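Anyone have tokens for Glutathione-binding protein GsiB? Sequence:
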Amino acid sequence: MRFVKRYFAAGLVSVLAAMPVWAEAKPLAVGVEFNLTKLDPTNINDTLTMTSLRTVYQGLLGFDKDYKIIPLLAERYEASSDAKEFTFYLRKGVKFHDGTDFNAEAVKFNLDRLANPENKLSRRVLISMLDHVDIVDDYTIKIYLKEPYGALPSSLAHPGTMMISPAAIKKYGKDIDRHPVGTGPFKFKNWSGDIFEVTKNENYWGKVADVDGVVIRSVPESGARFAMLQAGELQFVPDFPSELVEVAKKIPTLDVTTAPSIYEFYTSMNVMKKPFDDIRVRKALNYAVNKEAFCKVVLNGYCEPATSSIPPLLRFYTNVGQYEYNPEKAKQLLADAGYANGFETEVFSRNSTAVIRAMQFLQQELAKVNVKVTVTPLEAGVEADRVWGAETPEKSDVQLLYSGWSASTGDADYGLRPLFASESFPPNLYNTSYYKNEKVDQALAEGVKTADDTKRAEAYKIVQQTVFEDAPWIFLGEKQNISVKTKKLSGVYMLPDGGFSLDGAKFTGE
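Reply: yep, here.
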């Protein structure tokens, strides 16, 4: 069978390793909006927790600043012409933080664990097409798929497939959620409440970190994060509050960076509950919300109204249009559905300043068409329990859920399948609308069965058009990434998926 070879830039690691270590290392403090949820990357559904765990864990592949695939624990790979067989050549001399060797056996253990449906790991969807893994030798593995899947390298660059020490999993079992052991530049130290701490891995296989460690601190209130940044208690704030950008730009000790993202905001409507089981109600709520105003009020203009269920930077995006702002049309649709006097409902999400502002905006918009919305902000863990605690659609109490999604593979498959496939209902994945459409399921299946980009594009176009027409979401906006750091800090940046990279952090000019 013919193989298409994929090689990475030789010498990348050796060049990095030759760079000097900064003599005056100290811990880096990062301020984030939410609490982390749990610490097993294969069973996490929020970008913040996954990207925070990039300090400890690594995958076979990863992404650079421009979201191009780069080598990490695999030096290179080869793909068969039919995209059903992939051979990975692993990096030698790497150890997990507990001293366990990283090798082909460790990779097989991790992939088999993730692919096993009995383990009920939420990121199984990334490799659900896996048939089996063969060990060729200590540092070579061969992955066989049930069907062609050209996006496998993207899935293996996603943090949901990062490698965990097999010895640690055997030791801690399900409690691996509290005891992360990876191969990354930092080692886990502590996770308690709003603090996640890691320390420098002196035995790291690549360039040893220039900072002694990292403290990721949850500070939900936007003004408090900004004040801590100005006071020097924080040195980096990714996902910086948009309403404070102009103020931050005027402070000479700070650097402000903005860039496009692959993150989309939406509000899911539970289509299995009245009144959202009626498509007229769902469309009415889309017409009732002014998307331009959402971008201005909630994100201070650092946003564009959504034109699909995935953002433009994602591979295979299709512009399917917008529901224009038309309150009168919304009222008519509600009346046609039997809700001329409106109805009462609840929207819930997390408890940060920006999220609460978004829910309050929705509350005000929907009030104009006689829909009374109760806003319920929740701590991250409580919110996760409400979403993931329902084992069946009937047990879910979701009515409206304000949320956002970034497909951290860079591919449309992961921007659509976890959110709209009927197999993706919680607790499996994030189809919190409990939406089901056979046409969508079929197109999603076709999209992963081929490595032909033309066929994949057509399949995902069908999905985007159908989802837009069925309206299981209130489609809102695509945000820009905003981050602020102190000028004495370099080597940190946000990724297009809303995550961040801290590996190259370095303090200068002390």
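The CA atoms of residues 408 and 497 lie 6 Å apart.
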